[in-house]
Design brief:
about 65% helix, 3 domains, mainly alpha
Length: about 170
């Protein structure tokens, strides 16, 4: 059986497709453009649709980055670097992403944030085994916390956390 031909949209159909996409969840301009380009019969329709969405303020990377950073900070409890990485994957311009993340984390104490992350995400905070301590440190680093904040957070659970200070850079 030959592969099914993908349906291509023009003008109004592409507009309706874009609205359905954005009704489902918020997206960055680059994400919407990629999806529209894959479905568009004509490249000019993509530019026109994006222009209308921006004009109507339905599509705005700054608003998207602000809400994304706040949701990742409060919902998942991630650190700044993780949120910046995720926004980069979503192709939000770096300056826009950095501004949004810096504003979202302006009032956040990174060490306290890391401690609360550990309490929610790690099964046991008994770090007497160096392997568990290293694992928790890696988990904090992967989830966007600086080395300094990770070590300070782990010091609240283990005196052996001082050994981690030499093992990572910010």
């Amino acid at each position: 059986m030959p592969p099914r031909a993908r349906e291509k949209y023009d003008g109004e159909a592409l507009w309706n497709y874009a609205l359905r996409l954005l009704a489902g969840r918020s997206m960055s301009i680059a994400e919407v453009k990629r999806k529209l380009t894959a479905k568009a019969a004509f490249e000019a329709d993509v530019a026109e649709t994006l222009s209308k969405l921006k004009e109507m303020r339905v599509l705005n990377d700054r608003h998207y980055a602000d809400s994304f950073a706040t949701a990742r900070r409060d919902g998942a409890g991630f650190g700044k670097q993780r949120v910046l990485r995720e926004l980069a994957v979503k192709q939000v311009p770096r300056t826009v992403a950095e501004t949004a993340v810096n504003e979202a984390y302006a009032e956040v104490d990174e060490v306290d944030h890391a401690v609360s992350f550990l309490k929610r995400k790690v099964r046991s905070t008994d770090f007497s085994d160096p392997k568990h301590l290293q694992s928790a440190f890696r988990k904090l680093r992967y989830n966007g916390f600086s080395s300094n904040a990770a070590v300070k957070a782990l010091k609240q659970f283990s005196a052996n956390a001082d050994e981690l200070e030499d093992s990572g850079d910010d």
